[in-house]
From TrEMBL:
<dbReference type="InterPro" id="IPR016160">
    <property type="entry name" value="Ald_DH_CS_CYS"/>
</dbReference>
<dbReference type="InterPro" id="IPR016163">
    <property type="entry name" value="Ald_DH_C"/>
</dbReference>
<comment type="similarity">
    <text>Belongs to the aldehyde dehydrogenase family.</text>
</comment>
<feature type="active site">
    <location>
        <position position="236"/>
    </location>
</feature>
<dbReference type="InterPro" id="IPR016162">
    <property type="entry name" value="Ald_DH_N"/>
</dbReference>
<protein>
    <submittedName>
        <fullName>Aldehyde dehydrogenase family protein</fullName>
    </submittedName>
</protein>
<dbReference type="InterPro" id="IPR015590">
    <property type="entry name" value="Aldehyde_DH_dom"/>
</dbReference>
<dbReference type="InterPro" id="IPR044086">
    <property type="entry name" value="LUC3-like"/>
</dbReference>
<feature type="region of interest" description="Disordered">
    <location>
        <begin position="1"/>
        <end position="36"/>
    </location>
</feature>
<dbReference type="InterPro" id="IPR016161">
    <property type="entry name" value="Ald_DH/histidinol_DH"/>
</dbReference>
<keyword id="KW-0560">Oxidoreductase</keyword>
<feature type="domain" description="Aldehyde dehydrogenase">
    <location>
        <begin position="13"/>
        <end position="450"/>
    </location>
</feature>
<dbReference type="InterPro" id="IPR029510">
    <property type="entry name" value="Ald_DH_CS_GLU"/>
</dbReference>
<dbReference type="Pfam" id="PF00171">
    <property type="entry name" value="Aldedh"/>
</dbReference>
Length: 467
């Protein structure tokens, strides 16, 4: 199937895209010039005039977009695996999630609200779109996070300029091409390139909303770039999620769920479990149960059918994970499983379970974003909750135990935006998603994501026609 190529500008320089399973280039993408953004944003603004005016046409186009994404799954998923590294089954799941989100938001519309408060007029609260939206997306879930940004924005009547990470531009460009068959020209434009393209997009005066997922330092830079134009910002800036195990937990029963809550996508998940706090008397059992799974999980290229865990996405992230782990080992931690990069081409790191980790070690206090999990003992529940909350992040957290009421009481004490009991990192398309502290600004997901792309417009009307 051939798709119309989205994007802007005449052919220019290109940059290589590497396969993380080999470390070698397998494709290339346009390194679009910063001066092309003016034309891109201008076309998005022009397309906005028609797109915002017909909600029924928008819903039809989003449903057609979902069909197009599903039809292109056999093209999208292998390309996503090739540039991101995740197992092919996970790439297919990401494509399916993208289509599901398009269908979900196609059926959503803001509600007209009327306020009557005893005055001779009543107030109608209507909703208007913002204009062109900049969506800047990281490399861990390129399609899923892109759709989490552009789908509610489009459903609300905005147009979108989408910039993927330079590590994973190809599947997103293909997604843009697929969607071009269902969307009017200029409604969704994919731009690719290395910095300063993203910073310039965030600061462009024609952009009215900047939605970004990535690191805290880059998020701060995005907010600063958007500030002069007073563009709205939504920032999802990662997490350092803690899992607190209660003393009545059934270790073997929860071990698989807990392991994959930490290691899915090679640990490159903002809301993955990044720290485990276990009661002192169960600590060794928890460590051994997780280590047994780490030692047997199949690590390999994402395109290999038997692979359960792929490589890290890029050399810089591999180096970060390695440095973080090496520092913990130097501080006295013990690698019960893994603790080293694998001796093969590509960006592979052995699934790692750490015990005897100092609480102030970098692998505990920072987001490692890789296949490394420290397990720390606690002697009192108050100590565990205090340690779980002792971080600048506040994205997610979980409590694991047999007594659900007791677990629920502990969940209420966690300082985070989303908490789970006996599972982790599972989200519904209908729910809000937001962090506290350094984990972000604004709300995504569900109706909250839709209204985050709208502004209220208030009309006062007399109750009676005056003659």
């Amino acid at each position: 199937m051939r798709h119309r190529e989205p994007g802007a500008g005449a052919p220019g320089e290109r940059f290589a895209v590497l396969d993380p399973a080999t470390g070698e280039a397998f494709g290339e993408a346009p390194d679009q010039r910063p001066d092309e953004l003016d034309d891109v944003v201008a076309r998005a603004h022009e397309a906005w005039r028609g797109w915002r005016s017909d909600p029924a046409a928008r819903a039809t186009a989003l449903l057609a977009s979902a069909d197009a994404v599903e039809a292109a799954g056999a093209e999208l998923a292998p390309l996503l695996t090739r540039e991101q590294g995740k197992p092919l089954t996970e790439s297919y799941a990401e494509v399916a999630r993208t289509a599901a989100r398009l269908r979900h938001f196609a059926g959503m519309a803001p509600e007209l609200r009327t306020i009557t408060d005893g005055r001779p007029v009543h107030s109608e609260i209507r909703w208007r779109s913002l204009g062109p939206v900049a969506a800047i997306v990281p490399w861990n879930f390129p399609l899923q996070l892109a759709s989490a940004k552009f789908t509610p924005a489009l459903a609300a009547g905005n147009t979108v300029v989408l910039k993927p990470s330079p590590f994973t531009p190809l599947a997103t460009r293909l997604l843009g091409s697929v969607l071009s068959a269902a969307l009017p020209e200029g409604v969704l434009t994919v731009v690719t390139g290395r910095e300063p393209l993203g910073a310039l997009l965030a600061s462009h005066p024609g952009i009215r909303h900047v939605t970004f997922t990535g690191s805290v330092p880059t998020g701060r830079a995005v907010a600063q770039a958007a500030a002069p134009g007073l563009a709205r910002v939504t920032l999802e800036l990662g997490g350092n999620d803690a899992a607190v195990l209660l003393d009545d937990v059934d270790v073997e029963r929860i071990a698989d769920r807990l392991f994959w809550a930490a290691f899915r996508n090679c640990g490159q998940v903002c809301m993955a479990v990044k720290r485990v706090y276990a009661p002192a008397r169960l600590h060794s059992q928890v460590v051994e149960a997780l280590a047994a799974r780490a030692k047997t999980v199949v690590v390999g290229a994402g395109l290999d059918p038997g692979t359960e865990l792929g490589p890290l996405n890029n050399a810089a992230q591999l180096a970060r994970v390695e440095q973080c782990t090496d520092r913990a080992l130097a501080d006295g931690a013990r690698a019960v499983a893994g603790g080293h990069r694998l001796d093969r081409p590509g960006y592979f790191y052995a699934p790692t379970i750490l015990a005897d980790v100092p609480p102030d070690s970098r692998v505990v206090t920072e987001e490692q974003f890789g296949p490394v999990l420290p397990v720390l003992p606690y002697r009192s529940l108050d100590e565990a909750v205090e340690a779980a909350n002792a971080t600048r992040y506040g994205l997610g957290g979980s409590v694991w135990g047999t007594d659900l009421d007791r677990a629920g009481a502990v969940v209420d004490r966690l300082e985070c935006g989303t908490a789970w009991i006996n599972h982790h990192a599972e989200l519904s398309l209908a729910q809000p998603f937001a962090g506290i502290k350094d984990s972000g600004v604004g709300v995504a997901g569900g109706a909250w994501g839709l209204y985050g792309n709208l502004r209220p417009f208030v009309v006062h009307r007399p109750r009676e026609v005056r003659r």
